[in-house]
Amino acid sequence: MFKMEVWESLLTSMRTGEVAEFWCDATHTGLYPIVSKGMRLIAQGKDPLEGQRHMCGMGNLFHYHSTGFPELDEIMRTPQPLIFIMELLQVGDPMSYPRESWMMEKDEKLQTVPVLHMRGNALVKQRQFSEAASKYKEAVLLLKTVQSREMPGDIDYINLGRMIIPLELNYCQCMLELEEYYEVIEHTTELLEKHKDCVKGYYKRAKAHAAVWNEKEARRDFNMVARLDVTLASLVGRELKALSERMKEKYWEEKETYWNMLEKKESKNETEEEEGQSKEAEGGDIGMQGRSESVTTENTNECEEERGKEGGDEKSMVKPTQGEEAGSKDKASLSKTEGKDWQQMLRLIMFLQKEGNFLIKEKHFQEACGKFTEAIEYVDFLQNKVDEQGDDWDSLEKVRLSLTLNLGQCKLELKEFREVVQIINKLLKRHKGSMCYL
Questions:
Q1: Which intervals hold domain AIP/AIPL N-terminal FKBP-type PPIase (predicted)?
Q2: What does the pLDDT look like over 366-377, one tens digit per residue?
Q3: What is the pTM of this model?
Q4: Would you give the DSSP letter of residue 98?
Q5: Which stretch of DSSP H or E encloses residue 29?
Q6: Cα torsion for 259, 263, 266, 268, to the nearest 10°?
Q7: Please, what is the end-to-end C-alpha distance for the chain in angstroms?
Q8: CB within 8 A of 110, min separation 6: which ones?
Q9: Distance in angstroms (rounded) separating the CA atoms of residues 371 and 341
Protein backbone atom coordinates (compact mmCIF):
# COMPACT_ATOMS: atom_id res chain seq x y z
CA MET A 1 0.00 0.00 0.00
CA PHE A 2 3.04 2.30 -0.05
CA LYS A 3 3.31 4.74 -2.92
CA MET A 4 7.08 4.24 -2.75
CA GLU A 5 7.81 0.52 -2.47
CA VAL A 6 11.26 1.12 -1.00
CA TRP A 7 9.70 2.53 2.17
CA GLU A 8 8.03 -0.78 3.02
CA SER A 9 11.33 -2.60 2.59
CA LEU A 10 13.03 -0.12 4.92
CA LEU A 11 10.40 -0.45 7.65
CA THR A 12 10.62 -4.25 7.77
CA SER A 13 14.13 -3.90 9.22
CA MET A 14 13.01 -1.70 12.13
CA ARG A 15 11.71 -2.34 15.67
CA THR A 16 8.73 -0.59 17.27
CA GLY A 17 9.80 2.82 18.63
CA GLU A 18 13.03 2.85 16.63
CA VAL A 19 14.19 5.91 14.69
CA ALA A 20 16.46 5.10 11.74
CA GLU A 21 18.11 6.93 8.85
CA PHE A 22 18.25 5.33 5.36
CA TRP A 23 20.23 6.32 2.29
CA CYS A 24 18.47 5.50 -1.02
CA ASP A 25 20.01 5.89 -4.48
CA ALA A 26 18.34 7.71 -7.37
CA THR A 27 16.83 4.52 -8.85
CA HIS A 28 14.45 4.28 -5.87
CA THR A 29 13.57 7.98 -5.47
CA GLY A 30 12.25 8.95 -8.93
CA LEU A 31 8.61 9.19 -7.82
CA TYR A 32 9.38 11.02 -4.58
CA PRO A 33 8.56 14.57 -5.88
CA ILE A 34 5.04 13.49 -6.93
CA VAL A 35 4.42 11.61 -3.67
CA SER A 36 5.78 14.48 -1.57
CA LYS A 37 3.62 17.04 -3.40
CA GLY A 38 0.47 15.06 -2.62
CA MET A 39 1.45 14.63 1.04
CA ARG A 40 2.19 18.33 1.42
CA LEU A 41 -1.18 19.29 -0.04
CA ILE A 42 -2.94 16.82 2.28
CA ALA A 43 -1.09 18.33 5.27
CA GLN A 44 -2.45 21.76 4.20
CA GLY A 45 -5.99 20.36 4.12
CA LYS A 46 -6.16 20.49 0.32
CA ASP A 47 -7.13 17.97 -2.32
CA PRO A 48 -3.89 16.34 -3.57
CA LEU A 49 -5.40 16.23 -7.07
CA GLU A 50 -6.73 19.80 -7.04
CA GLY A 51 -6.17 21.64 -10.30
CA GLN A 52 -5.20 18.57 -12.29
CA ARG A 53 -6.62 17.87 -15.73
CA HIS A 54 -8.20 14.55 -16.61
CA MET A 55 -4.97 12.63 -17.31
CA CYS A 56 -2.35 10.58 -15.49
CA GLY A 57 -0.19 12.10 -12.73
CA MET A 58 2.95 12.30 -14.86
CA GLY A 59 0.94 13.90 -17.67
CA ASN A 60 -0.27 16.61 -15.29
CA LEU A 61 3.27 17.18 -14.08
CA PHE A 62 4.58 17.72 -17.61
CA HIS A 63 1.57 19.87 -18.50
CA TYR A 64 2.21 22.36 -15.67
CA HIS A 65 6.04 21.96 -15.72
CA SER A 66 6.15 22.30 -11.95
CA THR A 67 5.03 20.63 -8.72
CA GLY A 68 4.58 24.04 -7.08
CA PHE A 69 7.57 23.41 -4.77
CA PRO A 70 11.01 24.55 -6.07
CA GLU A 71 12.99 21.91 -4.13
CA LEU A 72 10.83 19.12 -5.60
CA ASP A 73 11.21 20.57 -9.10
CA GLU A 74 14.99 20.42 -8.65
CA ILE A 75 14.83 16.70 -7.74
CA MET A 76 12.62 16.07 -10.80
CA ARG A 77 15.15 17.74 -13.09
CA THR A 78 18.18 16.02 -11.56
CA PRO A 79 17.31 12.74 -9.77
CA GLN A 80 19.65 12.19 -6.83
CA PRO A 81 20.07 9.97 -3.77
CA LEU A 82 17.94 10.93 -0.77
CA ILE A 83 18.12 10.25 2.97
CA PHE A 84 14.88 9.30 4.75
CA ILE A 85 14.51 9.46 8.55
CA MET A 86 11.73 7.15 9.79
CA GLU A 87 10.19 6.30 13.13
CA LEU A 88 8.21 3.06 13.53
CA LEU A 89 5.31 3.89 15.87
CA GLN A 90 3.23 0.73 15.77
CA VAL A 91 2.83 -2.61 14.04
CA GLY A 92 -0.74 -3.82 13.51
CA ASP A 93 -2.73 -6.33 11.52
CA PRO A 94 -3.42 -5.58 7.84
CA MET A 95 -6.38 -3.18 7.32
CA SER A 96 -6.70 -2.57 11.08
CA TYR A 97 -6.00 1.17 10.87
CA PRO A 98 -7.94 4.15 9.39
CA ARG A 99 -6.98 4.27 5.74
CA GLU A 100 -6.11 7.62 4.21
CA SER A 101 -7.95 8.80 1.10
CA TRP A 102 -5.09 8.03 -1.29
CA MET A 103 -5.16 4.39 -0.17
CA MET A 104 -8.88 3.90 -0.91
CA GLU A 105 -10.48 2.71 -4.10
CA LYS A 106 -13.42 4.60 -5.58
CA ASP A 107 -16.11 2.37 -4.02
CA GLU A 108 -14.42 2.50 -0.63
CA LYS A 109 -14.35 6.31 -0.73
CA LEU A 110 -18.04 6.49 -1.65
CA GLN A 111 -18.89 4.14 1.24
CA THR A 112 -16.88 6.26 3.70
CA VAL A 113 -18.62 9.56 2.81
CA PRO A 114 -22.02 8.80 4.44
CA VAL A 115 -20.22 7.51 7.57
CA LEU A 116 -18.33 10.79 7.90
CA HIS A 117 -21.57 12.70 7.22
CA MET A 118 -23.35 10.92 10.07
CA ARG A 119 -20.43 11.45 12.45
CA GLY A 120 -20.42 15.13 11.62
CA ASN A 121 -24.16 15.41 12.29
CA ALA A 122 -23.73 13.67 15.65
CA LEU A 123 -20.97 16.09 16.62
CA VAL A 124 -23.15 19.06 15.65
CA LYS A 125 -25.87 17.83 18.01
CA GLN A 126 -23.22 17.80 20.73
CA ARG A 127 -22.24 21.35 19.64
CA GLN A 128 -18.72 20.22 18.82
CA PHE A 129 -18.61 22.35 15.69
CA SER A 130 -14.87 22.30 15.09
CA GLU A 131 -14.73 18.47 15.10
CA ALA A 132 -17.88 18.26 12.97
CA ALA A 133 -16.40 20.66 10.41
CA SER A 134 -13.33 18.43 10.04
CA LYS A 135 -15.59 15.42 9.29
CA TYR A 136 -17.56 17.31 6.67
CA LYS A 137 -14.37 18.63 5.11
CA GLU A 138 -12.87 15.12 4.96
CA ALA A 139 -16.00 13.84 3.21
CA VAL A 140 -15.89 16.70 0.70
CA LEU A 141 -12.22 15.92 -0.01
CA LEU A 142 -13.07 12.26 -0.74
CA LEU A 143 -15.85 13.21 -3.14
CA LYS A 144 -13.69 15.77 -4.93
CA THR A 145 -10.95 13.16 -5.32
CA VAL A 146 -13.42 10.76 -6.95
CA GLN A 147 -14.93 13.57 -9.03
CA SER A 148 -11.49 14.58 -10.36
CA ARG A 149 -11.25 11.17 -12.05
CA GLU A 150 -14.52 11.65 -13.95
CA MET A 151 -15.04 13.54 -17.16
CA PRO A 152 -16.60 16.99 -16.55
CA GLY A 153 -20.18 17.02 -17.79
CA ASP A 154 -20.71 13.26 -17.41
CA ILE A 155 -23.64 12.09 -15.29
CA ASP A 156 -21.30 10.67 -12.62
CA TYR A 157 -19.42 13.98 -12.41
CA ILE A 158 -22.70 15.92 -11.98
CA ASN A 159 -24.07 13.49 -9.36
CA LEU A 160 -20.86 13.74 -7.32
CA GLY A 161 -21.14 17.53 -7.43
CA ARG A 162 -24.66 17.29 -6.03
CA MET A 163 -23.43 15.04 -3.21
CA ILE A 164 -20.85 17.69 -2.27
CA ILE A 165 -23.49 20.45 -1.79
CA PRO A 166 -25.02 19.34 1.56
CA LEU A 167 -21.59 18.57 2.99
CA GLU A 168 -20.28 22.01 2.01
CA LEU A 169 -23.38 23.68 3.49
CA ASN A 170 -22.98 21.76 6.75
CA TYR A 171 -19.32 22.78 6.88
CA CYS A 172 -20.31 26.42 6.36
CA GLN A 173 -22.92 26.19 9.11
CA CYS A 174 -20.23 24.97 11.51
CA MET A 175 -18.02 27.87 10.46
CA LEU A 176 -20.90 30.28 11.13
CA GLU A 177 -21.25 28.86 14.63
CA LEU A 178 -17.48 29.25 15.11
CA GLU A 179 -17.71 32.87 13.82
CA GLU A 180 -15.33 32.13 10.94
CA TYR A 181 -17.31 34.39 8.62
CA TYR A 182 -14.76 34.97 5.88
CA GLU A 183 -14.28 31.21 5.59
CA VAL A 184 -18.03 30.92 5.02
CA ILE A 185 -17.98 33.65 2.36
CA GLU A 186 -15.12 31.96 0.53
CA HIS A 187 -16.70 28.47 0.49
CA THR A 188 -20.23 29.60 -0.35
CA THR A 189 -18.95 31.81 -3.17
CA GLU A 190 -17.07 28.84 -4.65
CA LEU A 191 -20.20 26.70 -4.28
CA LEU A 192 -22.51 29.29 -5.88
CA GLU A 193 -20.21 29.65 -8.88
CA LYS A 194 -21.07 26.02 -9.74
CA HIS A 195 -24.64 25.91 -8.39
CA LYS A 196 -26.27 29.30 -8.92
CA ASP A 197 -29.68 28.14 -7.68
CA CYS A 198 -28.51 26.99 -4.23
CA VAL A 199 -30.85 28.87 -1.88
CA LYS A 200 -29.10 27.76 1.31
CA GLY A 201 -25.76 28.87 -0.14
CA TYR A 202 -27.09 32.41 -0.65
CA TYR A 203 -28.66 32.41 2.82
CA LYS A 204 -25.49 31.34 4.63
CA ARG A 205 -23.37 33.81 2.67
CA ALA A 206 -25.86 36.57 3.51
CA LYS A 207 -25.58 35.73 7.21
CA ALA A 208 -21.78 35.85 6.97
CA HIS A 209 -21.83 39.21 5.14
CA ALA A 210 -24.21 40.64 7.73
CA ALA A 211 -21.90 39.50 10.54
CA VAL A 212 -18.94 41.42 9.07
CA TRP A 213 -21.03 44.57 8.31
CA ASN A 214 -21.16 44.07 4.51
CA GLU A 215 -24.68 45.52 4.32
CA LYS A 216 -24.91 45.81 0.53
CA GLU A 217 -23.75 42.24 -0.10
CA ALA A 218 -25.96 40.84 2.67
CA ARG A 219 -29.07 42.55 1.28
CA ARG A 220 -28.27 41.32 -2.22
CA ASP A 221 -28.00 37.69 -1.05
CA PHE A 222 -31.11 37.88 1.17
CA ASN A 223 -33.11 39.26 -1.76
CA MET A 224 -31.80 36.44 -3.96
CA VAL A 225 -33.09 33.92 -1.38
CA ALA A 226 -36.57 35.46 -1.54
CA ARG A 227 -36.45 35.46 -5.34
CA LEU A 228 -35.46 31.79 -5.59
CA ASP A 229 -37.89 30.58 -2.91
CA VAL A 230 -41.02 32.68 -2.37
CA THR A 231 -41.96 30.69 0.75
CA LEU A 232 -38.94 32.21 2.52
CA ALA A 233 -40.05 35.81 1.92
CA SER A 234 -41.21 36.27 5.54
CA LEU A 235 -37.91 34.89 6.87
CA VAL A 236 -35.97 37.21 4.58
CA GLY A 237 -38.10 40.15 5.77
CA ARG A 238 -37.20 39.41 9.39
CA GLU A 239 -33.52 39.07 8.52
CA LEU A 240 -33.50 42.37 6.63
CA LYS A 241 -35.23 44.12 9.53
CA ALA A 242 -32.70 42.68 11.97
CA LEU A 243 -29.88 43.79 9.64
CA SER A 244 -31.23 47.36 9.57
CA GLU A 245 -31.39 47.44 13.36
CA ARG A 246 -27.82 46.16 13.67
CA MET A 247 -26.57 48.75 11.18
CA LYS A 248 -28.32 51.52 13.15
CA GLU A 249 -26.73 50.32 16.37
CA LYS A 250 -23.31 50.25 14.70
CA TYR A 251 -23.87 53.75 13.31
CA TRP A 252 -24.68 55.25 16.71
CA GLU A 253 -21.79 53.39 18.37
CA GLU A 254 -19.36 54.77 15.79
CA LYS A 255 -20.84 58.23 16.18
CA GLU A 256 -20.41 58.17 19.95
CA THR A 257 -16.85 56.86 19.67
CA TYR A 258 -15.89 59.48 17.09
CA TRP A 259 -17.34 62.41 19.00
CA ASN A 260 -15.69 61.28 22.23
CA MET A 261 -12.32 61.25 20.45
CA LEU A 262 -13.04 64.68 18.96
CA GLU A 263 -14.03 66.19 22.30
CA LYS A 264 -10.86 64.88 23.94
CA LYS A 265 -8.78 66.43 21.16
CA GLU A 266 -10.55 69.79 21.48
CA SER A 267 -10.27 69.88 25.29
CA LYS A 268 -6.56 69.11 25.02
CA ASN A 269 -6.03 71.96 22.53
CA GLU A 270 -8.00 74.39 24.70
CA THR A 271 -5.89 73.48 27.73
CA GLU A 272 -2.69 74.08 25.76
CA GLU A 273 -3.98 77.46 24.54
CA GLU A 274 -4.91 78.58 28.06
CA GLU A 275 -1.48 77.61 29.35
CA GLY A 276 0.17 79.56 26.53
CA GLN A 277 -1.93 82.66 27.20
CA SER A 278 -1.15 82.59 30.94
CA LYS A 279 2.58 82.40 30.19
CA GLU A 280 2.31 85.37 27.81
CA ALA A 281 0.44 87.40 30.45
CA GLU A 282 3.11 86.70 33.06
CA GLY A 283 5.82 87.80 30.63
CA GLY A 284 3.92 91.02 29.85
CA ASP A 285 3.63 91.97 33.55
CA ILE A 286 7.37 91.58 34.06
CA GLY A 287 8.09 93.73 31.00
CA MET A 288 5.79 96.52 32.22
CA GLN A 289 7.49 96.63 35.61
CA GLY A 290 10.89 96.96 33.91
CA ARG A 291 9.72 99.89 31.82
CA SER A 292 7.96 101.85 34.61
CA GLU A 293 11.08 103.68 35.81
CA SER A 294 12.06 104.90 32.35
CA VAL A 295 8.57 106.25 31.73
CA THR A 296 8.71 108.53 34.85
CA THR A 297 11.92 110.21 33.68
CA GLU A 298 10.46 111.54 30.43
CA ASN A 299 10.42 115.26 29.71
CA THR A 300 7.64 117.13 31.58
CA ASN A 301 6.89 119.25 28.53
CA GLU A 302 6.10 116.17 26.51
CA CYS A 303 3.79 114.98 29.30
CA GLU A 304 1.88 118.29 29.20
CA GLU A 305 1.52 118.06 25.45
CA GLU A 306 0.15 114.56 25.83
CA ARG A 307 -2.40 115.78 28.38
CA GLY A 308 -3.57 118.40 25.93
CA LYS A 309 -4.20 115.80 23.29
CA GLU A 310 -5.73 113.32 25.72
CA GLY A 311 -9.34 113.95 24.76
CA GLY A 312 -8.78 113.42 21.06
CA ASP A 313 -6.69 110.33 21.63
CA GLU A 314 -9.42 108.71 23.73
CA LYS A 315 -11.89 109.08 20.88
CA SER A 316 -9.48 107.60 18.35
CA MET A 317 -8.63 104.69 20.64
CA VAL A 318 -12.31 103.76 21.08
CA LYS A 319 -12.88 103.36 17.33
CA PRO A 320 -11.46 100.05 16.03
CA THR A 321 -9.50 99.93 12.81
CA GLN A 322 -10.66 98.06 9.70
CA GLY A 323 -8.04 95.34 10.34
CA GLU A 324 -9.39 94.81 13.85
CA GLU A 325 -12.96 94.49 12.53
CA ALA A 326 -11.88 91.88 9.96
CA GLY A 327 -9.94 90.03 12.62
CA SER A 328 -13.00 89.83 14.91
CA LYS A 329 -15.09 88.45 12.04
CA ASP A 330 -12.45 85.86 11.26
CA LYS A 331 -12.38 84.75 14.90
CA ALA A 332 -16.16 84.30 14.89
CA SER A 333 -16.12 82.27 11.66
CA LEU A 334 -13.20 80.11 12.75
CA SER A 335 -14.59 79.22 16.18
CA LYS A 336 -15.60 75.73 14.98
CA THR A 337 -12.28 75.02 13.27
CA GLU A 338 -10.01 75.79 16.24
CA GLY A 339 -7.91 72.84 17.33
CA LYS A 340 -8.61 70.80 14.16
CA ASP A 341 -6.08 70.00 11.46
CA TRP A 342 -6.76 69.51 7.73
CA GLN A 343 -7.23 65.73 7.89
CA GLN A 344 -9.45 65.97 10.94
CA MET A 345 -11.74 68.46 9.23
CA LEU A 346 -11.94 66.31 6.09
CA ARG A 347 -12.96 63.29 8.17
CA LEU A 348 -15.50 65.44 10.00
CA ILE A 349 -17.01 66.63 6.70
CA MET A 350 -17.43 63.04 5.51
CA PHE A 351 -18.88 62.02 8.87
CA LEU A 352 -21.38 64.91 8.90
CA GLN A 353 -22.42 64.09 5.34
CA LYS A 354 -22.96 60.43 6.24
CA GLU A 355 -24.88 61.43 9.36
CA GLY A 356 -27.06 63.83 7.37
CA ASN A 357 -27.86 61.13 4.79
CA PHE A 358 -28.84 58.78 7.60
CA LEU A 359 -31.13 61.42 9.13
CA ILE A 360 -32.80 61.92 5.72
CA LYS A 361 -33.59 58.19 5.59
CA GLU A 362 -35.09 58.51 9.06
CA LYS A 363 -37.05 61.60 7.85
CA HIS A 364 -35.42 63.87 10.45
CA PHE A 365 -35.00 66.73 7.96
CA GLN A 366 -34.43 69.55 10.45
CA GLU A 367 -31.52 67.72 12.11
CA ALA A 368 -30.13 66.78 8.69
CA CYS A 369 -30.10 70.48 7.68
CA GLY A 370 -27.88 71.23 10.66
CA LYS A 371 -25.40 68.50 9.69
CA PHE A 372 -25.15 69.60 6.05
CA THR A 373 -24.83 73.28 7.03
CA GLU A 374 -22.00 72.53 9.44
CA ALA A 375 -20.22 70.40 6.83
CA ILE A 376 -20.49 73.24 4.27
CA GLU A 377 -18.88 75.65 6.77
CA TYR A 378 -15.88 73.32 7.06
CA VAL A 379 -15.67 73.10 3.25
CA ASP A 380 -15.67 76.92 3.03
CA PHE A 381 -12.84 77.13 5.54
CA LEU A 382 -10.70 74.55 3.71
CA GLN A 383 -11.34 76.12 0.30
CA ASN A 384 -10.06 79.46 1.61
CA LYS A 385 -6.78 77.74 2.52
CA VAL A 386 -6.04 76.24 -0.94
CA ASP A 387 -5.41 77.55 -4.44
CA GLU A 388 -8.67 78.10 -6.32
CA GLN A 389 -7.12 76.68 -9.49
CA GLY A 390 -5.79 73.54 -7.79
CA ASP A 391 -7.10 69.98 -7.62
CA ASP A 392 -7.82 70.24 -3.88
CA TRP A 393 -10.19 73.15 -4.44
CA ASP A 394 -12.04 71.25 -7.20
CA SER A 395 -12.39 68.17 -5.01
CA LEU A 396 -13.81 70.24 -2.17
CA GLU A 397 -16.19 71.95 -4.60
CA LYS A 398 -17.61 68.56 -5.62
CA VAL A 399 -18.23 67.78 -1.96
CA ARG A 400 -19.88 71.20 -1.53
CA LEU A 401 -22.15 70.50 -4.52
CA SER A 402 -23.41 67.26 -3.00
CA LEU A 403 -23.89 68.82 0.45
CA THR A 404 -25.75 71.83 -0.96
CA LEU A 405 -28.13 69.69 -3.01
CA ASN A 406 -28.88 67.55 0.04
CA LEU A 407 -29.47 70.69 2.10
CA GLY A 408 -31.86 71.99 -0.57
CA GLN A 409 -33.74 68.70 -0.57
CA CYS A 410 -34.20 68.91 3.21
CA LYS A 411 -35.50 72.46 2.91
CA LEU A 412 -37.98 71.29 0.26
CA GLU A 413 -39.24 68.57 2.59
CA LEU A 414 -39.64 71.22 5.31
CA LYS A 415 -41.49 73.47 2.78
CA GLU A 416 -39.00 76.30 3.28
CA PHE A 417 -39.22 77.27 -0.38
CA ARG A 418 -37.62 80.74 -0.16
CA GLU A 419 -34.49 79.28 1.38
CA VAL A 420 -34.42 76.58 -1.32
CA VAL A 421 -34.45 79.28 -4.02
CA GLN A 422 -31.63 81.18 -2.31
CA ILE A 423 -29.51 78.05 -1.84
CA ILE A 424 -29.92 76.89 -5.44
CA ASN A 425 -29.38 80.37 -6.89
CA LYS A 426 -26.02 80.61 -5.08
CA LEU A 427 -25.15 77.15 -6.30
CA LEU A 428 -26.02 77.90 -9.93
CA LYS A 429 -23.83 81.01 -9.84
CA ARG A 430 -20.87 78.77 -8.99
CA HIS A 431 -21.84 76.10 -11.55
CA LYS A 432 -23.27 77.99 -14.50
CA GLY A 433 -22.17 75.53 -17.16
CA SER A 434 -23.00 72.31 -15.33
CA MET A 435 -26.17 70.17 -15.26
CA CYS A 436 -26.86 71.18 -11.66
CA TYR A 437 -30.52 71.48 -10.78
CA LEU A 438 -32.84 70.34 -8.04
A1: 2-89
A2: 888 988 888 888
A3: 0.49
A4: P
A5: none
A6: -140
A7: 78
A8: 142, 146
A9: 19
